[in-house]
Amino acid sequence: MNKITQNIRTLAKQLLEEKTVDSVIGFQQASLAHMTRPFMAKTIEDAQELVFNCNCRMNLTNYLSGLKNKVGIVVKGCDSRNLVTQLIENRINRDQLYIIGVPCTGLADKTKLLNTAKGLDIVSVEDDNDTIVIKTDNCSMSIEKEEILQDNCRTCIRHNPVIHDVLAGPAVPESEIQDRFKDVEKIEALNPDDKKSFFEDLLDTCIRCYACRDACPLCYCPTCFVDESRPQWVGKTTDPVDTRTYHLVRAFHDAGRCTDCGACEAACPMNIPIRVFTRKTIKDCVQYFGVEAGMDETLRPALDKFSLEDPQPFIR
């Protein structure tokens, strides 16, 4: 058991014992060794089920909707930025939260983990910050964490939570990232025909399961535009035009609010790199407005305010 997990369990037990909170939202080990699942600890015994490791890919702020009682919640740096956005948008009240911040050194991509195991069943995944040890039935392999990081973790600008009541471990160094948006710039440089082909190929395997939408803590419209029937904005099938429309419109709904937590991509059963859409909106908000979502509780999202001095080139 790593130190962060020990600290989270101790903190959760204390919070529940002292009735500071009614429950603690965190992660629990799932049936598959390379997966975790959301878990709500309501008793001291439950607190011993909480874990934190490189497989904690979900964004737990997604589970704060309709909050009635005071809860504790475990958040990584990117999650905490989502929390800030939800506070700004009056989705939740700060006095209902006790935030357990986790300094994060990055999460392991589930597909890369499985590929590393070369088809063997993974028995355990041990996270030692810089090194991941993958154990199968008949072997053990050690790999540098950097080699199997999720793509969003490679461009993360906030490893430590921007908002918290307590940290579950010592703060980690923040990264200096060169060419942070080179992936976006590569697509921007394509000619129109190649761009069209790129996005057609990208979404070719999409089954319209909406796992990306359901995993996103910012997709909280009472009725999603794809579910509207009066009027019906987009078809319900996997027709390529309808599928592209869904992904493009969802990206614009999250523009200026997305923190690139990667929950959408981690949830995709078809392993589609759908962050391609939101990465473009993040780049434009930084480039034209100098705004990073969720970094400041006093700043509204870029598309939630208007100024006559706003730059115009991005409209083209």
From TrEMBL:
Signal peptide: none annotated. Residues 196-217, 249-279 form the 4Fe-4S ferredoxin-type domain. Transmembrane segments: none annotated. InterPro entries: 4Fe4S_Fe-S-bd (IPR017896), 4Fe4S_Fe_S_CS (IPR017900), Helical_ferredxn (IPR009051). It comes from the Bacteria. Keywords: Iron, Iron-sulfur, Metal-binding. This is 4Fe-4S ferredoxin iron-sulfur binding domain protein. It comes from Desulfobacula toluolica (strain DSM 7467 / Tol2).
